[in-house]
Design brief:
Length: about 325
């Protein structure tokens, strides 16, 4: 199933989120900010995080009308702004030149301007959150943002660590990627349901969804092409980052020394290609897909607290969408 089909029940809300993002960016009178912001909005990503806010709010509300539409749009938009800011900073850190199949912001305007633009979007996000007057939501998103930064710092500091453990990788992924997914789902539920059980369960759904999403991205970075990824493959490998696919490859390899040699030769022509071929031909690809499926199943189990609805079904479908990206059928 394609994302546009899954998103149909919340098309109106997603349109309002786009309008809000545009309004926030166009609130500046600075021509450079307007140009850079317009460039970002011209080719949006999947909008998964903002969609999760809306789906979880509506799935948790049941037949009640407890969710305030204006608050919902503001929170979803603010989380999308945080995500956009994090991608800009990621591209600077990774020296990436492509994002969504076109030049990255840093390759267009340079690293200094990109860093400041990311900071600007973060500030816009929290200013928007503050207008909702909900301290619990502010605390939830603030904590997730801190965890994102911690995870990014772990990833950068652990580069070229060939003794990196799977447990450490999962801690990093939970913080760097899954924390914002978890906050998206939890905040959506908090907006429309005062019970503790449903927001807590949806937070866990987002956490497991986010882990599956990141492991999938790490796998695709190793096996896919530029067109499918929207950026050059092998970026993790070239930056010396030990992802779960590589850890699985090392764990099952009979020629571990050769694989370690290829990882050390990350700047050598042909090293990434050789590693990719070994990964695809090995049981490590199957093991990585099993890992992804494990977290997808956990995410789906977290939805058991919800009453049946089109929105609950959409959350199931989003989990299946992650599986489909690497050819899995759930």
């Amino acid at each position: 199933m394609q994302l546009n089909e899954i998103y149909k029940p919340i098309e109106k809300e997603l349109s309002k989120i786009e309008q809000t993002l545009k309004s926030v960016i166009e609130n500046s009178r600075n021509k450079t900010i307007l140009k850079m912001g317009g460039y970002l909005l011209n080719r949006p990503g999947k909008r998964l995080r903002s969609a999760l806010v809306v789906f979880c709010a509506k799935a948790a509300a049941h037949s009640r009308s407890g969710v305030t539409a204006e608050q919902l749009i503001k929170i979803a938009s603010s989380i999308e702004l945080i995500h956009m800011a994090s991608l800009i900073h990621d591209d600077v850190i990774d020296h990436a030149i492509l994002r969504h199949n076109r030049p990255s912001v840093n390759s267009q305007w340079g690293e200094d301007a990109s860093i400041v633009l990311g900071d600007y979007l973060y500030s816009c996000a929290f200013e928007l959150i503050s207008t909702c007057g909900n301290k619990d939501i502010l605390s939830c998103i603030g904590r997730a943002t801190r965890l994102m930064c911690e995870g990014e710092l772990i990833q950068v500091c652990e580069r070229d660590n060939l003794d990196f453990l799977k447990e450490r990788y999962l801690i990093m992924v939970k913080k760097k990627t899954a924390s914002l997914f978890a906050a998206s789902c939890q905040c959506g539920a908090m907006l429309s349901n005062r019970q503790r059980t449903i927001p807590a369960a949806l937070k866990q759904y987002g956490l497991n969804f986010g882990i599956a999403f990141q492991v999938t991205d790490d796998c695709l970075d190793l096996i896919s092409g530029t067109k499918e990824l929207g950026k050059h493959p092998g970026a993790d490998f070239k930056m010396g980052e030990m992802t779960l696919p590589l850890l699985n490859l090392l764990a099952q390899a009979k020629d571990k020394d050769r694989i370690l040699s290829l990882i050390r030769e990350k700047s050598a022509a042909g090293s990434f290609r050789a590693l990719k071929q070994r990964f695809i031909a090995s049981s490590a690809l199957y093991k990585t897909k099993k890992d992804i499926l494990f977290f997808i199943k956990k995410a789906k189990n977290n939805l058991g607290v919800l009453q049946d609805s089109v929105f609950k079904n959409a959350l199931f479908s989003l989990a299946e969408f992650i599986a489909q990206r690497v050819g899995l059928k759930e």
